[in-house]
Amino acid sequence: MSDTRRRVKVYTLNEDRQWDDRGTGHVSSTFVERLKGISLLVRAESDGSLLLESKISPNTAYQKQQDTLIVWSEADNYDLALSFQEKAGCDEIWEKICQVVLSSFGHCIILNLLCCLPSVEFSAVTSD
């Protein structure tokens, strides 16, 4: 893949609170059936192996730092970072993360509103 916009380094935070380089690859956002959602996938540029598979979750606090860095925590004490070669690629993936998170919250808000609405008796509704 020659597209440098999506070229990233994957980092994990170790026990000493230092970032460990897990490899360089290309990131994409794709629906993963097994995870039942849009996920970030990073495939190694060296051999195409999977460096990262992370479902985008509305319960995760994603942060965009500087122009080329996205960081988040997947579980207790498991922090991840994607460092992009280009700002455009970071912006593109950040936009996708925001779309997934906001659409999930939107559905929750709509469902919560529907649950709180008073019930309507259809027998009382007449058409003229």
Automatic annotation (TrEMBL):
SUPFAM superfamilies: PH domain-like. One of its GO terms (molecular function) is protein phosphatase activator activity. GO terms for cellular component: nucleoplasm; protein phosphatase 4 complex. It comes from the Eukaryota. GO terms for biological process: DNA damage response. Residues 5-100 form the PP4R3 EVH1-like domain. Regulatory subunit of serine/threonine-protein phosphatase 4. Belongs to the SMEK family. This is Serine/threonine-protein phosphatase 4 regulatory subunit 3. It comes from Mastacembelus armatus.
